[in-house]
Structures are given as structure tokens and as C-alpha cells.
């Protein structure tokens, strides 16, 4: 079998997951998309492992071992992730990612306009003092 | 290797390749529906299809142990866990029009660009590489449980143990997160939750406690 | 105490008095007067002691280097020769008189503590200049005097004249100080030291590479400080300060510093014939011009100010012909009688309630109101006019004598042209000096008209000081036999030719003025004129400040009064109008310097406002717009951030692959 088939499938699955991570609003759907991306990587690992072990370049089965590790870590990740999502949901009443905007500056309101005329006035004052 | 590669062209696919291609199309379709459907529960169910399809692909790649682990963990526990999560966060059943956020087009652009770049690179790099699935080593299947187990406990035993510590840490972390959230929910009564009455609140608090346990259980399952 | 210790104490005591006066002025008002007078008196006593011990013998030198200061060392050095000790005595005596006089003159002034402290500091700075043997230390005293004159001239800062005059005094003297500083550096670079003895040694051995340049640079500073043409314009305006300050500045300290400086470094100047000729021309223009201007002034203090400029011209003239003995002789006698003139003028202004001669000439019996001032001022004016046997006669004849020597070609290394210039202009100025002295006396004390207002007796201290100063004005000339021992040894006795010429010219000037006055005085009764600031109970300072402030509104100008009864008007004829305003030099400076500077300032202001500020605003606005744009991207939506991040990494990956494949 050509290696290109699993590799291209892996790429497409990965990018599908990527789209999901970027486009989905619900945090749990984002976690699902993350799972898709992880699986895409797993497929890649398995495909390359098969290729390399058949070509007798790799006797350790590192790809399959790493796949197992990835699966375990993905399980842990989904547990922690869901716990966080639930905690957020309990605190905020929502699990929509685009409503969690605490890192943003508060919306520029009248204060922003207020400083604009103040600045030239102050410049005038310093000039008069000089 | 080069000799083998030269004798296998793209236009003369083998049976395995055709099967891989068909299952791959199904998998990809399911994945696309997962990230685009407007019904949240359906998304989880389509994820099952996609992950199952991947398990089949593993089988086709002769990695049978991985395939079964995939079915066990992903289809068996992760998706169940996700469904629990959906329920606990009161995800609407049925079509929800706002399942996608506003930057869908930006996301699509990024995803397509990334896909184009990666596909181009991968195809450019591996278009002539051939995997000899028929097995030069005769019956000794590379992905069988025996071979995998041997390699795992001979060559990979140290990372394996380290991974078990990681899983323990994840387990403890999940418990701490859940407990802290519970304690928080008890003290400022209803100040954070939008529950209309105390009656509505009490079950939700109760729900969280089992979910934490459930996650812990799933973590353990992952180790096994 | 050793002579050196005494000499150190002489400048130090007034300085400590000034510091203490400034510190205690508000908290302990009772100590202010003792703190002002006693240190100055004590330092005068010490100066006399130093002079006696030095005795005109070998110069005493002492130096200590506090810290290494680079290539050319700066040392705290004393250089006590006959000139230094005698000038220090003069400074001490005049400063003491001024301090004592001020206690009466400004007895009710709220700013007296700071005033007295500044006078002490001024005195201390002048004494430092006199005693210092190091040019940089001398410069320190020189500049302290500059800043003190700024504060003291502006003592009545409520009046715009005083504010303008203090600024003008400061700026004009600084204008001279900049080339002065360069000159000092050039001198030190050539001589390799700031020590005066070393410098003079280098000059004697011909070690100066650029004597003319150095001398001319130093001359600029001297012209600023000693009010020589063309930097003399600050001195008449400085009359806006209190009269004791004028006395101090004119008689002993500030203006004397420049002459004294040249006297100290005379070999540097005689090393360049060109510098001597320039000095001679400067002195000649200064003398004759200022004497003409003095004849046209209406303000009694401005007459005296222009006369100071003229007498300083005599001193620089003596220096231009290479005789510092005569110059310092005239400096000493002039210090005595000019201090007396100013202090007496203060008394007269207080008594008359005006500083205008035109107004005084319409007062009867002013002289009987101020008998002490009348007699002492008469003595001082006779000394000024160089009538024998008063002090001014001997010193002025000494100057004329050396000029005659130089003109005859007897002076070594002095061009005969310089001698002729000084001799002729000195004789002309002698005539003019007698003329304006007579005019001043006639107008002030021989007035007709209404009875002079009764402002009460002046404080005893003010009158006592006048008599103290009258003694040297009268008799200082008799010391001419002793002085050559203290100076360079040149004979200072007047020669017959110049004596007859000078005295004759002075008498002619006085008689002509008297005749003119007899002719014009009939007019005085017909033209009523005069404004009197009557404050019978206030102290003299208040009266003077009001008189100065009201002169321009009453007469149309600070210096000028439209009085047809003025004999000066008759004598000068059409020249009077120009002489009254100082030959339009201020107007010329305004046109030449003030206007261009103002225009340049306007231009700079325009450039700053309209051009530079536009860039500044642009530099502020562009980042603000950019910030607003960037802030729009800062939505807080993690998915947006991640999208941008991944888009960027995709682009980077594509670029990397492209570059790698191109390279392969």
C-alpha cells in the first residue's frame, strides 16, 4: 500500500479537527475536534510504524507504542478537559467559548473619547507655562 | 525498496488500497459532519463513526491491537464521557443555530490552507513510498498483541511507568477540579448558577459529584 | 595672626556675614543690622592691617591646591602686592560706609535683611577678586558680583524700570563675560597655569603665543564689567537700584573690578600694541561720550552714572598708556569721591522728594535743608572736576602726566598714538567734567522758586558717613608722595604742563557753565516744572523708588526733562537731544540685537508650534490609530487568536518549504 494514502487521510482528518477547534462554539464540541486531531496523529504514527518496521528500519515498534501512549494521554486530557468545562459551566452558566472573554480589554466606551480632547488642552497648558 | 516502489503505481490500486480509500472516505465524511452538524448530540454520534472508521483503518494497516484499544477507549469511554459532558452542560437537544461561532470563515480558511500545505508536503515527500503489508516476516504480524506487548514491556517499560504517573496526576487533577467546583457551588448559593430555584440547583450539584468519579474511572480505564 | 591668615579672613568675614544674614534674617531681625555692619567693618580693619604689614614691599604669595583639577591646576591662591592691599582697603571702607548708610537709608524696608546680606556678599566677592592670585578663583568672585548686581539693581522690583535695569545689567555684563572666559582659558593654555604670578612670569619671558587675541578677549569682559564703550549701557539704567547700591557698584566694587583686573595683568596687555591702541580708543570714546551724555541728563543719579563711566575711561586710559600706578591711584581717589557723591545724592533725593534736576532747580533753599550733603557734595564735585588741591586733581593729573609721557614717546612698548589719544580726550573730558559738575551743583543747590519741601532731618548715620568720605576726597591727593612705594615706583606728581592745561580747562568749563546758567535761569521761573514724591515720614528708599517710578510719567523719559532753563541745553545745542538718550546706543542695540533676537524667537516659536509640534502630534496620533486598530483584534475570543496563530504558522511552513525546495 502506498504510504501516501494513510498520510493524506491523516492530514485531512487533522485539518477537519482543526476547523472544528477554531469554528465550534460549544467547548465540548471543541474537545471532540481535539480528539479528531489526536486520532489523525495516531493514524500517522501507525502508518509510519508499519512502513518502518516492515522495511526493517525500526525494531522497537516505536510508532505503535507512542500511539498507545497518545491514546492514554488523550483519555486523561478528555477527563481533565471535561472537568474544566464543567467547572466553567457551573461558574458562568455557559460553555460557549466565545462568551469567555475575560482576557479582552473592556469595551472602549466614553472614556476613550473623553481623553482625546483632554490631550491637546494639556499641551496648550504646558506651552503657556513654558 | 525503490524496485518495489517502481512496480506499484497510483493507477493500479491493490484491494487493500481500495478498501482503505473507501473506509477513509467514510471516516473523513463522518469527521466533517462531526465538526459541522448543528445538533450537538449528533456530533458525538458521528464522532463514534469517525473513530470506528479509524479503527478499521488500523486493522487494514495490520495494527490490530491498536485497533481494539481504539474501539475500547475512544468509542467505549471517551465518547460516552463527552455525551455525559453534553448532558451536564445542558446542551440543547435538536438543532441549535449557534453551534458555530462567528469566525467560521476564518477557521475554514486556516484549515484549508493548512490542509493544502500539508497535503502538498506529504504527497511530495511520500508519493513513491510503499508499505509492504504482505509481510516479509511470514506469519509474524507486526501489530499483534504479542509483538506489541513484548516491545511495550521490553523497550518501552520506563516511559510506560512514567505514563502511569501522568495518568495518576490527571486523575487527582480531575478530582480536585470537581471538588473545588462543588465547594464553590455550595457556598455562594445560586450566585453563579443561573438555576431559577433551589430545587433545580440541588440535582445539578449532585450531578457533578458522580461525573468527577466517572472521569476518574475513565482515567483508570485509559491506563489499562 | 600671620598676614596670610588676615588676608584670608578679609573676604571670608563678609561672606560669613552674608550667610548668617540670609539664614537669620527672618527669624532674628534684631541681629540683621549688626550682622551687616560688623563683619564688613572688621574686614576693613583687617584689610588695613594687611596693607600696613605688606607695606608696599615684596608681594606676598600663598597658595593651596584643594584637589587636582586636570591639566591646568586651579589653586586657592593669594597674591598680595601694593595694588591689592590698597584696593582692598578702599573696598572695605566704601562697603562699610554703604552698610552704615543703608541702615538709615532703608530703615523701614521689609527686604532689608536680604539686601544687607547681598551687599555683604558683593563686598566679599570684590575682596576675593582683589586678593585672589588665581584667575579661576578671581572669576568666581567676578561672577558672584554679576549675580549680586542683578539682585541689588532690581531691589525695587515692583517698578518696571528696576526689573528691566537688573536684567539689562546682568545680560550686558554676561555678554562681556563670555569672551572673558575664553580669554582666561586661552591665557591659561598659553601660560600653562591660572596663577597670576606664573602668567606674569610667562609674559615676561615672552611665553605668550597669542597676546593680541587674549588681550582683546579679556578686554570684552572688562568693558562689560567696567562699563566701557560699547558695553556701558547697563550702568546708567542701573540707577534704578537704591542709591547705596549705586555707590557701592560705582565706587568700589563692580566697575572697579574690570580696571583692577587689567592693572593686575597689565603685562599681558602691554605685550600687544594693538590691544593698547584698542584700549586707548575705547577709553577715549567712553570718556568724551559719557561726559557729553552726563551734561544732558536730568536724573541726578544718571549724571553721576555717566560721570563714573567717564572716570573709568580715565583709568582705562592710564592703563592704555601702560601705567597702572596712575590708574589705581585714580581708582582709589575716584572710589572715595564717587561714593560720597552717590551717598550725598541719596540724601538730596530724600530731601527734595525728586531725582530730577529740573525740579530741584525750581526749589529755593534746598542747600539749607541738607547742609551736610551740600558741603560734602561740593567737596566731591570739586574733586571730580579736578580742582586743586582735592583728591581728583592729583589722580587725574597723574593720568594726564603719563599720557603726556607716552605721547612724547618716553613710554616703553607703548605706542605714541595711544598716548596722544588719551591726552587729547583726557583734556577734553576735563573740560566737560567741570562743566557737568558745575551744572549739577548749580541746578541742585542754587534753585529759585518755591520753598523746598521739609522732609525732616536725615538719619545721623547717613550724614556722618558723608563726612567720613569727605576726608579722603579732600586730602587723598596728599598721599601721592607715598603711593609710588606701594605701586610700581613711577612718579605720580603732576607735571606742570598738564596741570596748568587741565586745571585751566576745568575752570573754563565751570565759568562757561556759570555764565550759561545765569543766562537761562531767568527762564526757570516762567516754565513751571516738577513732580515731587512727598513722603515726609517714609524712609529714603521709598522716596527714591517713587521718584524713579514717577520720572518717566512726569517728564516723558527716564533720563530727560523738557526744561528750557537747563544750562546743559544751551551749551550742547543740537547735540543735547542725542546726548540725553546716550547717543541712541540703546536704540541701536535694540535695532541690531534685540529685534533680530525677538524675530528669531518668534520664528522658533512658530516652527515649534506649527512644524515640530505637528510631527509630535503625528507621532502621537499614528500609534493611537494603530493601537485602536490592534485593540479591535483583541476580542478576548481564544478561537480568533488561535486562528491567527495557526494561519501564521501555515504561512511560515509554506515559506520554509518553498525556501528549502528552492535551495535544494
UniProtKB/TrEMBL annotation, chain A:
Q: Which Pfam families does this entry report, sorted A to Z? A: Oxidored_q2 (PF00420)
Q: So what does this thing catalyse?
A: a quinone + NADH + 5 H(+)(in) = a quinol + NAD(+) + 4 H(+)(out)
Residues crossing the lipid bilayer are: 66-89
Q: List this protein's GO terms for biological process.
A: ATP synthesis coupled electron transport
Q: Where is this region: Disordered?
A: 99-130
Q: What molecular functions are annotated in GO for this chain?
A: NADH dehydrogenase (quinone) (non-electrogenic) activity; quinone binding
Location(s), subcellular: Cell membrane; Membrane
Q: Which UniProt keywords apply?
A: Cell membrane, Membrane, NAD, Oxidoreductase, Quinone, Translocase, Transmembrane, Transmembrane helix, Transport
Q: E.C. number, please? A: 7.1.1.-
* Primary residence: membrane
Top enzyme class: translocase
- Entry-linked InterPro entries: NADH_UbQ_OxRdtase_chain4L/K, NUOK/Mnh_C1-like
Assigned GO CC terms: NADH dehydrogenase complex; plasma membrane
Q: Spell out the Gene3D superfamilies in the cross-references.
A: 1.10.287.3510
Q: How does it sit in the membrane?
A: Multi-pass membrane protein
Q: Which domain of life is it from?
A: Bacteria
Q: Does the keyword Ion transport apply?
A: no
Q: What does this protein do?
A: NDH-1 shuttles electrons from NADH, via FMN and iron-sulfur (Fe-S) centers, to quinones in the respiratory chain. The immediate electron acceptor for the enzyme in this species is believed to be a menaquinone. Couples the redox reaction to proton translocation (for every two electrons transferred, four hydrogen ions are translocated across the cytoplasmic membrane), and thus conserves the redox energy in a proton gradient.
Its subunit composition reads: NDH-1 is composed of 14 different subunits. Subunits NuoA, H, J, K, L, M, N constitute the membrane sector of the complex.
**PANTHER family, alphabetized:** NADH-UBIQUINONE OXIDOREDUCTASE CHAIN 4L, NADH-UBIQUINONE OXIDOREDUCTASE SUBUNIT ND4L
The similarity annotation says:
Belongs to the complex I subunit 4L family.
Q: What HAMAP family is this protein classified in?
A: NDH1_NuoK
What name does UniProt use for this protein?
A: NADH-quinone oxidoreductase subunit K
Q: Which gene encodes it?
A: nuoK
TrEMBL record, chain B:
On the tree of life, the source organism's domain of life is Bacteria
Keywords attached to this entry = Cell membrane, Membrane, NAD, Quinone, Transmembrane, Transmembrane helix
Q: Which GO terms describe its cellular component?
A: plasma membrane
What is the membrane topology listed in the Swiss-Prot or TrEMBL record?
Answer: Multi-pass membrane protein
From the record, give the transmembrane residue ranges: 18-36, 43-61, 67-93, 105-123, 156-177
Primary localisation category: membrane
Which InterPro entries is this protein grouped with? NADH_UbQ/plastoQ_OxRdtase_su6, Nuo/plastoQ_OxRdtase_6_NuoJ
* EC category name: translocase
Bias (Basic and acidic residues) occurs at 196-208
EC annotation? 7.1.1.-
Q: Which GO terms describe its molecular function?
A: NADH dehydrogenase (ubiquinone) activity; quinone binding
Compartments, record wording: Cell membrane
What's this protein's function? NDH-1 shuttles electrons from NADH, via FMN and iron-sulfur (Fe-S) centers, to quinones in the respiratory chain. Couples the redox reaction to proton translocation (for every two electrons transferred, four hydrogen ions are translocated across the cytoplasmic membrane), and thus conserves the redox energy in a proton gradient.
Similarity comment: Belongs to the complex I subunit 6 family.
Name recorded for this polypeptide: NADH-quinone oxidoreductase subunit J
Which organism was this protein described from? Streptomyces himalayensis subsp. himalayensis
Automatic annotation (TrEMBL), chain C:
This protein's membrane topology, according to the annotation, is: Multi-pass membrane protein
Q: Which residues cross the membrane?
A: 6-24, 36-56, 76-100, 112-130, 136-157, 169-188, 200-224, 245-263, 269-296, 303-321, 327-352, 373-394, 420-443, 464-483, 495-517, 641-661
Q: What is the lineage of its organism?
A: Bacteria, Bacillati, Actinomycetota, Actinomycetes, Kitasatosporales
> Could you name the domain of life of the organism this protein comes from?
Bacteria
First-listed, main subcellular location of the protein, grouped into a coarse class? membrane
Cross-referenced Gene3D superfamilies, in alphabetical order?
A: 1.20.5.2700
Gene Ontology terms: biological process: ATP synthesis coupled electron transport; electron transport coupled proton transport
| Annotated NADH:quinone oxidoreductase/Mrp antiporter transmembrane domain residues | 132-403
**What UniProt keywords are attached to this protein's entry?**
Membrane, Oxidoreductase, Transmembrane, Transmembrane helix
MF GO annotations: NADH dehydrogenase (ubiquinone) activity; NADH dehydrogenase activity
* One GO CC term on file: endomembrane system
> Where does the NADH-Ubiquinone oxidoreductase (complex I) chain 5 N-terminal domain start and stop, copy by copy?
68-115
What EC number(s) would the UniProt record show?
1.6.5.-
Compartments annotated for it: namely: Endomembrane system; Membrane
The record's section on InterPro entries has: NADHpl_OxRdtase_5_subgr (IPR018393), ND/Mrp_TM (IPR001750), NU5C-like (IPR003945), Proton_antipo_N (IPR001516)
Quote the protein name from its UniProt record.
NADH-quinone oxidoreductase subunit L
